[in-house]
Each structure stands twice: as structure tokens, then as C-alpha cells.
Amino acid sequence: MESPSSAVIAAVPHVQAEQMDRRLLWTMTTATVLAVGNIYYSQPLLGVIARTFDRSASAVGSVPMVSQLGYVTGLLFLTPLGDALEKRRLLVTMLGFAAVALFAAGLAPTFPLFLVACVAIGLSSVLVQILIPFVAALSSAEERGRNLGLVLSAALVGVLLSRTLSGFVATHLGWRGMYFAAGATMLGLGMTLRLSLPRYESSTRLTYPRLLRSLWELLRDLPGLRAIALTGALMYAALSAFWASLAFFLSSDAYHQGPGTAGMFGLIGTVGALAANVAGRHAQRVGARRIVRACILTMLAAFGVFAAFGTLWAGLISGVVLLDLGAQAATVSNQTELYRLHPSAQTRLNTLYKIFYFAGGACGSALSAIAWDHAGWWGVCGVGGGFLLLAFAWEQLQARRVPAPV
User: Fold this and answer.
1) Domain presence at residue 178
2) Which of 75, 97, 118, 381 lies at 20 to 30 Å from 316 by C-alpha?
3) Residue 93 covered by a domain
């Protein structure tokens, strides 16, 4: 009988790395920045979307939730295809799908149809999780770490800048204009990658059902994976709780601001994202779990600042820097440790981690919107802080089970 480990290894093609030139690397890096933000464009726009469709905050809070659930579904059912199909064709096809979904969101005449489009946007956005391993496959062994570091940093910055871009474009073209612009960008990106990327056939011979079954085998056989994934889910739930309600808070009597201001906070968050790379470089020396626990406390401090000083610009800005610093540094540290668990199955490890991650984000977004409707800003801070307390307790429990830091 075939063992789980051998099945997973068989599912990963033997990679003959090509010499990636700088032009190709920067093309793929730019593609990552542009594509990673599709499911985040809605967050600064929730207030104006609510007014367009005449919906409450809790109802419109389902927008990021369904986008993230669509992303989780795509991770589970679409991402494994990256190990079975020709990668360039798969990426170009998914970019076309993304463009259609974004145009549909911009054209949606009713709120239920807009939600359906958001699910499709989430499904198509997993193309980034195929693009990043493609960078690794095309890189030589000597340059793989450096190239991956560049693309992962670009992904972090792209997530944050997408909110700034969304607020800026919506201020001048309306929220529908943001989705039209994003759809056109995906079409242009698809044509660019079709011309720039080399063909890359997979050598795997596993069937699609066997690829999916290998995900379960990894989750079952690697307790370290389960521990890291649950921590990541709880931390991202806290982060999503903040971003899902920020637009409502800024448009309230506390600030009277629109989507442009909400989007600018994504730019502020890039300070934390850039600083997070320092944590990634020191994860092995200091210990990834120690860094993650420090990140949880940093994010918890951010919610304390939000609760005490959130009505002041200085308090809100400093809290965002702390929040994104903790969140992004933890992500880099978690994934650094994650890839060490099973070097021959990094794509599927990443898939499973992101499934937990975005499922947590969907929960955080939904609970945040409910908390805003019933308890206002303090309720949002309570939801975010609660998730972080659970994450810290979970990490402490894992530390007792495995005394040696990793």
C-alpha cells in the first residue's frame, strides 16, 4: 500500500530549474502585486457599497467574508492543479476568469448578484498561490531563496496597497469604476504573462482526486502543520476584524471620512509589512514560534491602542502600524517554519496553511460586522482582541507540548 509520504512526494513534479533573468522575475513580481489585491478592493468601499444597495453594515460585512470563503474554496479545489497542468496556460486562464468576475462585480445590479461575483473573485484570486511556486520552479538553486523573498514581499505590499488604490480610484471613479479598472488590469496581465512566461509541463501522473487526497494526508500526518495553520487562522481573523470595519468607523461621527481615507491606511500598513522582512530573516536564529508569540502580543497591543485612542488620528495610525507589523512578521515566520516540515510538498503545505488562514479571515470579517452593528468600535476591538488571546493561548499550549523552540 502506498504511504502518505510517498504519495505526496509523487504528486510534486521533479523541477528542472531554468535560469530566470531579471526581466522575467520582475514581470512575475509585478503580476503578484497586481493580482493579490483583488479580494481586498472591497474593504475600503464597504460604506459606499452599503449605501448603493441600501444594506446594513452587518449585511455588507458579508462581502469580505464570501470573498475569503471563495478564496478558500479555490485553494482547496484549484491550487492543486498547479502540480498537474501546464502552468502558463493555467495562469492565463485564471486571469481571464478573474477579469470576468471583476467586471461582473462592477456591473451587478443587485446585492445578491454582487455577492456571487465576490465569490468568483475569491476563487480566481488563488492564481497567486500558483504563481509564487512557479517562481521557485523557474529559479536556480542559488537564487531561489532570494527570488522567493522578493515575490513574497511584493505579495505583502500588494495586499496593503490594494486598499489604498481602491480608495483612491473609488473617490474619482466610484466603487464600480474600481472593479472595472481591476478587470481591465487582469486582461492586460493575462496577455503579458502569455507572452512572457515559458511553458512548464508538470511531470506528475497523479489523478485530480489523488491530488486532493494528498492534502488530507498531509494534514493528518503533520501535527506541526495543524498547529501553525490554526495560529495563522486566529491571527488573520483578528486582522480581518479590523479591516472589515475600518471603513464604517471612518465614515461614522468619529471621523466623517470616505473610502479614500480608508484606503490610505493600507499605505500606512506597508511600514509594518516592510519591517516584517527583518523578522523573516531572523526566524531560524531566534525561533519562529518565539517571533510569532511576540507578534501576537504586538497585535494585541494594537487593539488596545484602538480601543483607548482610536478616535484620535495618532492612535489609529500607530495602531495600524503595530497591527500590520505583527500580522506580516508572523506570516513570514509561520511560512518559513512551514516549508521545513516537508520540503517535497511545499505547494500543498502552503495550500493547507492558506485554507486555514482565509477561513479565519472570513470568520473575523463576519463577526466584526456583527460587533459593529451591536457594540460599535469597542465591539470590533473586542472581537480582534479575543481572537488574539485564543492564538496566544494556543501557542503557549504548543510550547508546553514541544519544549524545544523551533
Assistant:
1) yes
2) 118
3) yes
Reduced to 3 states (helix: H, G, I; strand: E, B; else coil), residue 201 is coil
Q: Please state the rounded mean pLDDT for residues 315-325.
A: 91
State how far the Cα of 368 lies from the Cα of 365, in Å rounded to an integer: 5
CA proximity to 46, closest of 383, 387, 380: 380
The structure's pTM equals 0.74
Measured in whole angstroms, how far is the alpha carbon of residue 385 from the centre of its chain? 20
Residue 283: per-residue pLDDT: 54
In a domain, 241, yes or no: yes
Most confident of 107-116, 247-256, 289-298: 107-116
Q: What are the pLDDT digits (tens) for 19-62?
A: 578 899 999 999 999 999 898 899 889 889 999 999 987 788 88
Could you give the C-alpha distances from 406 to 297, 303, 330, 338, 398, in angstroms and in order?
A: 19, 28, 14, 11, 11
Please count the structural domains in the chain: 1
| Range(s) of the domain holding residue 209 | 12-401
Distance CA 244, CA 353 (A): 21
Tell me the three state secondary structure of residue 54: coil
Terminal-to-terminal C-alpha distance of the chain: 33
> Between vectors from CA 325 to CA 323 and to CA 331, what angle results, nearest 5°?
100
Q: What is the CATH number of the domain that holds 253?
A: 1.20.1250.20
Q: Is residue 4 part of a domain?
A: no
